[in-house]
Amino acid sequence: MQQRSVDATPTAVVDVMDTAGPQVWAAMTVEVALSVMASARAEHLFLCDEDGQCTGLITRAQLTVVRDSPSYTDQVRLGDIVGDASGVLEFSR
Prior knowledge:
Strand content: 15-25%
Radius of gyration: 14 Å
Shape: globular
Distance between the termini: 39 Å
Strand order of the largest sheet: 1-2-3
Largest sheet: 3 strands, mixed
């Protein structure tokens, strides 16, 4: 494992995946995820599978876009959100 300085700013997803951060599961709602981010003062969350393996990450900005969309309800879960390579998120419902 590489040592990083406290001031290091990740420049790619791979860099972010090497840093510590809150871990959440797909069953968590968007509202709860945003609350976890606020409490942890984090800009991203690691999405984990049922085995605790990190499968991706989601940012506060992405969740805010989802929450502000006209089709959003408080029942939308992180697993309902699908992202493509460009980072664009959409509902999978």
